[in-house]
Amino acid sequence: MKRHLLLLAVFICIAVTGAFAQDGAKDLKWAKSLLEHGDYAYAAEKFADIAASHYNSPAVRKEALYYVGYCHVKNSDPWQAIRVFEQFIEKYDNGSSSDFVPDALYVLGRVYEETGDKRSAIKVYRRCSRAYPRSQFAIKSEDRLRQLGGSDNTDPFDGDYSGDDNYYPNPDDDYGNDHHHPGNSTGISREIRRLLRVAETVNNDFTRDQMLLEGSDRARSGEDFVALANAIKNTFTRGQLLDRVSKNENYNNFSTRSMLDLAALISNSYQRDMFLVSFGSAMANRDYVSNYELVEVSAAMNNDSLRQQLFDAISASKAFQFINARTMVELAQTCDNSFIHDQFLLKAAQKNKYGYRDLRILADACKNSFTKTQIMQEADSGHHSPYGRRTAAIAPELGSERALSSDPFAGFSFNKAQIARIRSFMKAVDTKKKMAESARQLKSSDLKTATVREYMEKYKVLQKFERIHQR
Q1: How many CB atoms within 10 Å of residue 437?
Q2: pLDDT, tens digit, 9 for 90 and up, residues 44-65
Q3: What's the start-to-end Cα distance of the chain, in Å?
Q4: Does the pLDDT of residue 151 top 90, yes or no?
Q5: What is the domain extent for residue 78?
Q6: Do 260 and 305 sit in the same domain of this protein?
Q7: Counting beta carbons within 10 angstroms of the beta carbon of residue 258, is it exposed (0 to 12), middle (13 to 18) or buried (19 or more)?
Q8: Residues near 161 by Cβ (< 8 Å), separated by ≥ 6?
Protein backbone atom coordinates (compact mmCIF):
# COMPACT_ATOMS: atom_id res chain seq x y z
CA MET A 1 0.00 0.00 0.00
CA LYS A 2 2.81 2.37 0.95
CA ARG A 3 4.57 1.60 -2.31
CA HIS A 4 1.45 2.49 -4.32
CA LEU A 5 1.09 5.77 -2.41
CA LEU A 6 4.74 6.60 -3.07
CA LEU A 7 4.35 5.92 -6.80
CA LEU A 8 1.20 8.05 -6.86
CA ALA A 9 3.03 10.91 -5.16
CA VAL A 10 5.89 10.70 -7.66
CA PHE A 11 3.43 10.66 -10.57
CA ILE A 12 1.61 13.73 -9.21
CA CYS A 13 4.91 15.55 -8.71
CA ILE A 14 5.99 14.85 -12.29
CA ALA A 15 2.60 15.91 -13.65
CA VAL A 16 2.62 19.17 -11.68
CA THR A 17 6.20 19.92 -12.73
CA GLY A 18 5.31 19.24 -16.35
CA ALA A 19 2.32 21.56 -16.12
CA PHE A 20 4.47 24.37 -14.69
CA ALA A 21 7.08 23.80 -17.39
CA GLN A 22 4.43 24.06 -20.10
CA ASP A 23 3.06 27.22 -18.47
CA GLY A 24 6.59 28.67 -18.45
CA ALA A 25 6.94 28.01 -22.18
CA LYS A 26 3.56 29.66 -22.81
CA ASP A 27 4.51 32.66 -20.67
CA LEU A 28 7.76 32.97 -22.62
CA LYS A 29 5.88 32.94 -25.92
CA TRP A 30 3.46 35.59 -24.64
CA ALA A 31 6.31 37.83 -23.43
CA LYS A 32 7.94 37.51 -26.85
CA SER A 33 4.72 38.65 -28.49
CA LEU A 34 4.80 41.78 -26.29
CA LEU A 35 8.39 42.33 -27.40
CA GLU A 36 7.53 41.94 -31.09
CA HIS A 37 4.74 44.49 -30.69
CA GLY A 38 7.18 47.03 -29.25
CA ASP A 39 5.96 47.02 -25.64
CA TYR A 40 9.52 46.73 -24.33
CA ALA A 41 8.96 47.92 -20.76
CA TYR A 42 6.08 45.52 -20.07
CA ALA A 43 7.86 42.68 -21.89
CA ALA A 44 10.95 43.22 -19.72
CA GLU A 45 8.82 42.87 -16.58
CA LYS A 46 7.24 39.66 -17.85
CA PHE A 47 10.57 38.15 -18.88
CA ALA A 48 11.99 39.07 -15.46
CA ASP A 49 9.09 37.31 -13.71
CA ILE A 50 9.66 34.17 -15.80
CA ALA A 51 13.41 34.22 -15.13
CA ALA A 52 12.84 34.54 -11.38
CA SER A 53 10.31 31.71 -11.08
CA HIS A 54 11.83 28.46 -9.80
CA TYR A 55 8.81 26.60 -11.19
CA ASN A 56 10.14 27.13 -14.73
CA SER A 57 12.76 24.89 -16.29
CA PRO A 58 16.38 26.11 -16.34
CA ALA A 59 16.19 26.51 -20.13
CA VAL A 60 13.12 28.76 -19.91
CA ARG A 61 14.62 30.86 -17.12
CA LYS A 62 17.86 31.26 -19.00
CA GLU A 63 16.17 32.42 -22.20
CA ALA A 64 13.88 34.76 -20.27
CA LEU A 65 16.81 36.45 -18.51
CA TYR A 66 18.54 36.98 -21.85
CA TYR A 67 15.46 38.71 -23.23
CA VAL A 68 15.22 40.99 -20.18
CA GLY A 69 18.49 42.54 -21.33
CA TYR A 70 17.29 42.45 -24.95
CA CYS A 71 14.23 44.53 -23.99
CA HIS A 72 16.37 47.12 -22.20
CA VAL A 73 18.49 47.50 -25.34
CA LYS A 74 15.40 48.03 -27.46
CA ASN A 75 14.15 50.52 -24.88
CA SER A 76 17.40 52.54 -25.18
CA ASP A 77 18.29 51.87 -21.55
CA PRO A 78 22.00 50.87 -21.64
CA TRP A 79 22.41 51.04 -17.86
CA GLN A 80 19.89 48.28 -17.25
CA ALA A 81 21.04 46.31 -20.31
CA ILE A 82 24.60 46.16 -18.99
CA ARG A 83 23.38 45.15 -15.57
CA VAL A 84 21.30 42.27 -16.90
CA PHE A 85 23.78 40.95 -19.47
CA GLU A 86 26.64 40.98 -16.97
CA GLN A 87 24.43 39.05 -14.56
CA PHE A 88 23.50 36.63 -17.34
CA ILE A 89 27.13 36.02 -18.33
CA GLU A 90 28.28 35.51 -14.75
CA LYS A 91 25.47 33.03 -14.19
CA TYR A 92 25.53 31.05 -17.42
CA ASP A 93 28.95 31.39 -19.07
CA ASN A 94 30.25 28.22 -17.43
CA GLY A 95 31.51 26.37 -20.50
CA SER A 96 28.75 23.76 -20.34
CA SER A 97 26.13 25.41 -22.56
CA SER A 98 26.48 27.89 -25.40
CA ASP A 99 22.76 28.71 -25.69
CA PHE A 100 22.40 32.51 -25.64
CA VAL A 101 25.86 33.01 -24.06
CA PRO A 102 27.69 34.16 -27.23
CA ASP A 103 24.59 36.21 -28.04
CA ALA A 104 24.84 37.95 -24.66
CA LEU A 105 28.59 38.55 -24.98
CA TYR A 106 28.22 40.15 -28.40
CA VAL A 107 25.23 42.30 -27.43
CA LEU A 108 27.00 43.44 -24.25
CA GLY A 109 29.95 44.43 -26.40
CA ARG A 110 27.66 46.43 -28.67
CA VAL A 111 26.13 48.22 -25.69
CA TYR A 112 29.59 49.09 -24.40
CA GLU A 113 30.64 50.25 -27.87
CA GLU A 114 27.50 52.30 -28.54
CA THR A 115 27.96 54.15 -25.26
CA GLY A 116 31.64 54.91 -25.75
CA ASP A 117 33.32 52.27 -23.57
CA LYS A 118 35.51 50.76 -26.28
CA ARG A 119 37.92 49.10 -23.84
CA SER A 120 35.17 46.93 -22.34
CA ALA A 121 33.69 46.28 -25.79
CA ILE A 122 37.01 44.89 -27.01
CA LYS A 123 37.33 42.65 -23.94
CA VAL A 124 33.87 41.18 -24.40
CA TYR A 125 34.22 40.71 -28.17
CA ARG A 126 37.50 38.86 -27.65
CA ARG A 127 35.90 36.67 -25.00
CA CYS A 128 33.08 35.76 -27.39
CA SER A 129 35.43 35.09 -30.30
CA ARG A 130 37.79 32.88 -28.30
CA ALA A 131 35.26 30.96 -26.19
CA TYR A 132 32.65 30.33 -28.91
CA PRO A 133 34.56 30.37 -32.24
CA ARG A 134 31.84 28.46 -34.14
CA SER A 135 29.06 30.82 -33.16
CA GLN A 136 27.64 33.38 -35.58
CA PHE A 137 28.20 35.93 -32.81
CA ALA A 138 31.92 35.11 -32.76
CA ILE A 139 32.01 36.14 -36.43
CA LYS A 140 30.12 39.33 -35.60
CA SER A 141 32.47 39.99 -32.68
CA GLU A 142 35.52 39.59 -34.93
CA ASP A 143 34.01 42.09 -37.37
CA ARG A 144 33.56 44.61 -34.56
CA LEU A 145 37.10 43.97 -33.32
CA ARG A 146 38.52 44.72 -36.75
CA GLN A 147 36.64 48.02 -36.81
CA LEU A 148 37.87 48.90 -33.30
CA GLY A 149 41.46 47.88 -34.02
CA GLY A 150 41.47 45.16 -31.38
CA SER A 151 41.42 42.05 -33.57
CA ASP A 152 44.91 40.94 -32.54
CA ASN A 153 46.62 40.84 -29.15
CA THR A 154 47.25 44.57 -29.08
CA ASP A 155 45.04 46.68 -26.88
CA PRO A 156 44.29 50.12 -28.37
CA PHE A 157 44.16 51.44 -24.81
CA ASP A 158 47.74 50.40 -24.02
CA GLY A 159 50.21 53.24 -23.65
CA ASP A 160 52.26 52.29 -26.71
CA TYR A 161 49.34 52.25 -29.10
CA SER A 162 49.60 54.98 -31.72
CA GLY A 163 46.11 54.80 -33.18
CA ASP A 164 42.89 56.60 -32.31
CA ASP A 165 42.28 55.48 -28.75
CA ASN A 166 39.40 57.83 -27.94
CA TYR A 167 41.07 58.34 -24.58
CA TYR A 168 39.92 61.91 -24.11
CA PRO A 169 36.12 62.13 -23.96
CA ASN A 170 34.48 64.24 -26.61
CA PRO A 171 32.47 67.03 -24.95
CA ASP A 172 30.26 67.32 -28.01
CA ASP A 173 29.10 63.70 -28.23
CA ASP A 174 25.63 62.51 -27.33
CA TYR A 175 26.69 60.98 -24.06
CA GLY A 176 28.71 63.78 -22.49
CA ASN A 177 32.00 63.27 -20.69
CA ASP A 178 30.84 60.73 -18.13
CA HIS A 179 30.70 57.14 -19.30
CA HIS A 180 27.57 55.06 -18.91
CA HIS A 181 29.07 52.22 -16.98
CA PRO A 182 30.06 52.81 -13.34
CA GLY A 183 32.99 50.45 -13.55
CA ASN A 184 34.51 52.03 -16.63
CA SER A 185 34.72 55.80 -16.20
CA THR A 186 37.56 56.21 -18.71
CA GLY A 187 39.16 59.45 -19.90
CA ILE A 188 40.96 62.42 -18.35
CA SER A 189 38.59 65.25 -17.51
CA ARG A 190 38.98 68.68 -19.09
CA GLU A 191 39.84 70.33 -15.76
CA ILE A 192 42.72 67.96 -15.06
CA ARG A 193 44.08 68.31 -18.60
CA ARG A 194 44.15 72.08 -18.14
CA LEU A 195 45.87 71.68 -14.77
CA LEU A 196 48.54 69.43 -16.27
CA ARG A 197 49.23 71.94 -19.05
CA VAL A 198 49.63 74.76 -16.51
CA ALA A 199 51.86 72.60 -14.31
CA GLU A 200 54.22 72.02 -17.23
CA THR A 201 55.04 75.73 -17.24
CA VAL A 202 56.18 75.68 -13.58
CA ASN A 203 59.94 75.17 -13.17
CA ASN A 204 60.04 74.52 -9.42
CA ASP A 205 59.35 70.83 -8.72
CA PHE A 206 57.93 71.41 -5.22
CA THR A 207 55.57 74.14 -6.38
CA ARG A 208 54.44 72.04 -9.35
CA ASP A 209 53.81 68.95 -7.19
CA GLN A 210 51.82 70.93 -4.64
CA MET A 211 49.76 72.48 -7.43
CA LEU A 212 48.91 69.02 -8.78
CA LEU A 213 48.14 67.69 -5.29
CA GLU A 214 45.73 70.52 -4.51
CA GLY A 215 44.19 70.23 -7.96
CA SER A 216 43.28 66.60 -7.29
CA ASP A 217 40.10 67.88 -5.64
CA ARG A 218 38.82 68.41 -9.18
CA ALA A 219 39.56 64.83 -10.27
CA ARG A 220 36.47 62.97 -11.47
CA SER A 221 37.87 59.60 -12.50
CA GLY A 222 40.59 57.10 -11.75
CA GLU A 223 42.29 58.16 -14.97
CA ASP A 224 42.52 61.71 -13.60
CA PHE A 225 44.43 60.40 -10.59
CA VAL A 226 46.70 58.25 -12.78
CA ALA A 227 47.62 61.30 -14.86
CA LEU A 228 48.29 63.38 -11.73
CA ALA A 229 50.31 60.64 -10.05
CA ASN A 230 52.53 60.21 -13.11
CA ALA A 231 53.09 63.97 -13.31
CA ILE A 232 54.14 64.32 -9.65
CA LYS A 233 57.90 63.99 -9.15
CA ASN A 234 58.17 63.62 -5.37
CA THR A 235 57.37 60.18 -3.91
CA PHE A 236 56.00 61.60 -0.65
CA THR A 237 53.65 63.97 -2.48
CA ARG A 238 52.51 61.11 -4.71
CA GLY A 239 51.68 59.14 -1.55
CA GLN A 240 49.59 62.07 -0.31
CA LEU A 241 47.74 62.04 -3.62
CA LEU A 242 47.03 58.31 -3.38
CA ASP A 243 45.62 58.83 0.12
CA ARG A 244 43.02 61.14 -1.45
CA VAL A 245 41.81 58.61 -4.02
CA SER A 246 39.38 56.74 -1.75
CA LYS A 247 37.98 60.03 -0.44
CA ASN A 248 36.92 61.20 -3.89
CA GLU A 249 33.14 61.36 -4.33
CA ASN A 250 33.34 59.24 -7.48
CA TYR A 251 35.64 56.60 -5.97
CA ASN A 252 33.06 53.79 -6.13
CA ASN A 253 32.82 54.33 -9.89
CA PHE A 254 36.53 54.34 -10.72
CA SER A 255 37.66 51.86 -13.36
CA THR A 256 39.60 48.76 -12.39
CA ARG A 257 42.34 49.50 -14.90
CA SER A 258 43.05 52.93 -13.41
CA MET A 259 43.19 51.54 -9.87
CA LEU A 260 45.62 48.82 -10.92
CA ASP A 261 47.76 51.48 -12.60
CA LEU A 262 47.76 53.53 -9.39
CA ALA A 263 48.56 50.49 -7.27
CA ALA A 264 51.59 49.79 -9.46
CA LEU A 265 52.99 53.19 -8.41
CA ILE A 266 53.02 52.16 -4.71
CA SER A 267 56.42 50.72 -3.83
CA ASN A 268 55.42 49.37 -0.39
CA SER A 269 53.72 46.01 -0.99
CA TYR A 270 51.58 46.20 2.18
CA GLN A 271 50.26 49.64 1.30
CA ARG A 272 49.68 48.52 -2.28
CA ASP A 273 47.63 45.52 -1.16
CA MET A 274 45.62 47.63 1.29
CA PHE A 275 44.89 50.05 -1.56
CA LEU A 276 43.59 47.16 -3.67
CA VAL A 277 41.58 45.66 -0.79
CA SER A 278 39.83 48.98 -0.30
CA PHE A 279 39.00 49.34 -3.98
CA GLY A 280 38.04 45.68 -4.48
CA SER A 281 35.68 45.82 -1.49
CA ALA A 282 34.02 48.96 -2.85
CA MET A 283 33.75 47.48 -6.35
CA ALA A 284 32.13 44.27 -5.07
CA ASN A 285 29.25 46.30 -3.63
CA ARG A 286 28.43 48.19 -6.80
CA ASP A 287 25.04 47.76 -8.40
CA TYR A 288 26.90 46.81 -11.58
CA VAL A 289 30.10 44.81 -11.41
CA SER A 290 32.06 42.69 -13.89
CA ASN A 291 33.24 39.91 -11.64
CA TYR A 292 36.22 38.96 -13.78
CA GLU A 293 37.63 42.36 -12.77
CA LEU A 294 37.60 41.15 -9.16
CA VAL A 295 39.98 38.43 -10.32
CA GLU A 296 42.28 41.09 -11.79
CA VAL A 297 42.35 42.99 -8.49
CA SER A 298 43.06 39.88 -6.43
CA ALA A 299 45.77 38.71 -8.84
CA ALA A 300 47.58 42.04 -8.43
CA MET A 301 47.97 41.50 -4.66
CA ASN A 302 50.90 39.79 -2.92
CA ASN A 303 49.81 39.17 0.69
CA ASP A 304 47.38 36.29 1.22
CA SER A 305 46.24 37.58 4.61
CA LEU A 306 45.15 40.83 3.00
CA ARG A 307 43.72 38.89 0.08
CA GLN A 308 41.50 37.08 2.59
CA GLN A 309 40.09 40.49 3.57
CA LEU A 310 39.19 41.00 -0.07
CA PHE A 311 37.62 37.52 -0.25
CA ASP A 312 35.58 38.25 2.89
CA ALA A 313 34.31 41.50 1.37
CA ILE A 314 33.40 39.77 -1.90
CA SER A 315 31.57 36.92 -0.17
CA ALA A 316 29.54 39.43 1.85
CA SER A 317 28.63 41.52 -1.22
CA LYS A 318 25.60 41.51 -3.51
CA ALA A 319 27.81 40.44 -6.40
CA PHE A 320 28.77 37.15 -4.75
CA GLN A 321 25.56 35.33 -5.70
CA PHE A 322 26.09 36.14 -9.39
CA ILE A 323 29.64 34.79 -9.65
CA ASN A 324 29.68 31.50 -11.50
CA ALA A 325 31.67 28.51 -10.28
CA ARG A 326 34.52 28.87 -12.76
CA THR A 327 35.07 32.51 -11.81
CA MET A 328 35.04 31.46 -8.13
CA VAL A 329 37.83 29.02 -8.92
CA GLU A 330 39.80 31.70 -10.76
CA LEU A 331 39.46 33.99 -7.75
CA ALA A 332 40.58 31.25 -5.36
CA GLN A 333 43.57 30.40 -7.54
CA THR A 334 44.99 33.89 -7.07
CA CYS A 335 45.70 32.82 -3.47
CA ASP A 336 48.70 30.62 -2.62
CA ASN A 337 47.47 29.81 0.90
CA SER A 338 45.65 26.48 0.55
CA PHE A 339 43.43 27.03 3.62
CA ILE A 340 42.18 30.45 2.45
CA HIS A 341 41.83 29.04 -1.08
CA ASP A 342 39.64 26.12 0.02
CA GLN A 343 37.58 28.07 2.55
CA PHE A 344 36.61 30.58 -0.12
CA LEU A 345 35.39 27.77 -2.38
CA LEU A 346 33.51 26.17 0.51
CA LYS A 347 31.79 29.46 1.30
CA ALA A 348 30.79 29.77 -2.37
CA ALA A 349 29.28 26.27 -2.26
CA GLN A 350 27.38 26.98 0.96
CA LYS A 351 26.02 30.43 0.10
CA ASN A 352 25.19 30.08 -3.60
CA LYS A 353 22.54 27.86 -5.11
CA TYR A 354 24.79 25.95 -7.47
CA GLY A 355 23.79 22.74 -9.20
CA TYR A 356 25.72 19.49 -9.02
CA ARG A 357 27.97 20.30 -12.00
CA ASP A 358 29.08 23.64 -10.52
CA LEU A 359 29.67 22.13 -7.10
CA ARG A 360 31.78 19.48 -8.78
CA ILE A 361 33.88 22.28 -10.34
CA LEU A 362 34.42 23.84 -6.91
CA ALA A 363 35.25 20.50 -5.28
CA ASP A 364 37.75 19.50 -7.98
CA ALA A 365 39.60 22.79 -7.45
CA CYS A 366 40.07 22.20 -3.72
CA LYS A 367 43.53 21.40 -2.42
CA ASN A 368 42.32 19.65 0.72
CA SER A 369 40.35 16.39 0.47
CA PHE A 370 38.28 17.20 3.58
CA THR A 371 37.04 20.49 2.08
CA LYS A 372 36.30 18.68 -1.16
CA THR A 373 34.13 16.22 0.80
CA GLN A 374 32.31 19.10 2.51
CA ILE A 375 31.44 20.66 -0.84
CA MET A 376 30.17 17.38 -2.25
CA GLN A 377 28.03 16.96 0.86
CA GLU A 378 26.39 20.24 -0.15
CA ALA A 379 25.58 18.62 -3.50
CA ASP A 380 24.09 15.57 -1.78
CA SER A 381 22.04 17.63 0.70
CA GLY A 382 19.53 18.62 -1.99
CA HIS A 383 19.28 22.23 -0.86
CA HIS A 384 20.65 23.65 -4.09
CA SER A 385 18.64 24.54 -7.15
CA PRO A 386 19.12 22.05 -10.00
CA TYR A 387 20.79 24.36 -12.55
CA GLY A 388 23.01 21.48 -13.58
CA ARG A 389 20.16 18.98 -13.99
CA ARG A 390 18.14 19.09 -17.20
CA THR A 391 14.45 18.32 -17.40
CA ALA A 392 14.46 17.85 -21.15
CA ALA A 393 11.81 15.13 -21.04
CA ILE A 394 9.40 17.57 -19.43
CA ALA A 395 10.36 20.86 -21.09
CA PRO A 396 12.72 20.69 -24.07
CA GLU A 397 15.21 23.45 -24.80
CA LEU A 398 13.59 26.30 -26.67
CA GLY A 399 16.78 27.65 -28.23
CA SER A 400 16.49 25.61 -31.44
CA GLU A 401 13.00 26.93 -32.16
CA ARG A 402 13.70 30.64 -31.86
CA ALA A 403 11.95 32.69 -34.50
CA LEU A 404 12.83 36.02 -32.90
CA SER A 405 16.32 37.30 -33.76
CA SER A 406 18.47 37.27 -30.65
CA ASP A 407 20.46 40.30 -31.87
CA PRO A 408 18.59 43.45 -30.78
CA PHE A 409 21.01 45.61 -32.78
CA ALA A 410 19.91 44.09 -36.10
CA GLY A 411 18.66 47.19 -37.90
CA PHE A 412 18.57 49.12 -34.64
CA SER A 413 20.65 51.73 -32.81
CA PHE A 414 20.21 53.51 -29.51
CA ASN A 415 18.10 56.65 -29.26
CA LYS A 416 21.01 58.90 -28.31
CA ALA A 417 18.82 61.93 -27.63
CA GLN A 418 16.84 59.89 -25.11
CA ILE A 419 20.01 58.63 -23.43
CA ALA A 420 21.33 62.20 -23.19
CA ARG A 421 18.10 63.33 -21.45
CA ILE A 422 18.20 60.41 -19.05
CA ARG A 423 21.88 61.01 -18.30
CA SER A 424 21.16 64.65 -17.55
CA PHE A 425 18.34 63.67 -15.17
CA MET A 426 20.51 61.05 -13.42
CA LYS A 427 23.29 63.59 -12.93
CA ALA A 428 20.83 66.15 -11.55
CA VAL A 429 19.47 63.67 -9.00
CA ASP A 430 22.93 62.42 -8.01
CA THR A 431 24.23 65.95 -7.50
CA LYS A 432 20.89 67.26 -6.14
CA LYS A 433 21.10 70.21 -8.55
CA LYS A 434 18.51 71.40 -11.10
CA MET A 435 16.41 68.28 -10.52
CA ALA A 436 13.06 69.82 -11.37
CA GLU A 437 14.43 71.47 -14.52
CA SER A 438 16.01 68.22 -15.64
CA ALA A 439 12.85 66.21 -14.91
CA ARG A 440 10.80 68.55 -17.09
CA GLN A 441 13.07 67.76 -20.05
CA LEU A 442 12.11 64.09 -19.93
CA LYS A 443 9.62 62.73 -22.46
CA SER A 444 6.94 60.09 -21.98
CA SER A 445 9.11 57.48 -23.74
CA ASP A 446 11.91 58.15 -21.22
CA LEU A 447 9.57 57.33 -18.35
CA LYS A 448 9.17 53.78 -19.68
CA THR A 449 12.80 52.93 -18.95
CA ALA A 450 13.67 51.16 -15.71
CA THR A 451 16.54 53.57 -15.06
CA VAL A 452 14.30 56.63 -15.13
CA ARG A 453 11.75 54.90 -12.88
CA GLU A 454 14.49 54.14 -10.36
CA TYR A 455 15.75 57.71 -10.41
CA MET A 456 12.21 59.08 -10.19
CA GLU A 457 11.87 57.23 -6.87
CA LYS A 458 15.11 58.83 -5.65
CA TYR A 459 13.86 62.20 -6.87
CA LYS A 460 10.59 61.84 -4.94
CA VAL A 461 12.44 60.92 -1.75
CA LEU A 462 14.72 63.96 -2.12
CA GLN A 463 11.72 66.24 -2.75
CA LYS A 464 10.01 64.90 0.38
CA PHE A 465 13.19 65.41 2.39
CA GLU A 466 13.48 69.02 1.20
CA ARG A 467 9.84 69.77 2.07
CA ILE A 468 10.32 68.42 5.60
CA HIS A 469 13.39 70.59 6.19
CA GLN A 470 11.73 73.70 4.79
CA ARG A 471 9.02 73.63 7.46
Answers
A1: 11
A2: 989 988 988 888 899 999 999 9
A3: 75
A4: no
A5: 2-148
A6: no
A7: buried
A8: 154, 155
